[in-house]
């Protein structure tokens, strides 16, 4: 299973032009949001997750989903 996210989609749907625009206007850390949105984070900061949900007026399930890995062979 792979954890995927819709963070960039949620940001755009809420009227922001980009992750940078979103973080500039909300005061959230660009570095942390970008890493999370690009699936580059090794862990998820719960405080950041709560702030994202509050700021984007969404639930955790709107930001993340699990994708099944295809078995090869």
TrEMBL record:
- The residue range of the signal peptide is none
InterPro entries, sorted = Cro/C1-type_HTH, Lambda_DNA-bd_dom_sf
Query: Which parts of the sequence belong to the HTH cro/C1-type domain?
Result: 24-63
SMART domains assigned to the protein according to its UniProt record, in alphabetical order: HTH_XRE (SM00530)
What Pfam families does the record point to?
Answer: HTH_26
Q: Name one GO molecular function term.
A: DNA binding
Name of the protein this chain belongs to: Helix-turn-helix domain-containing protein
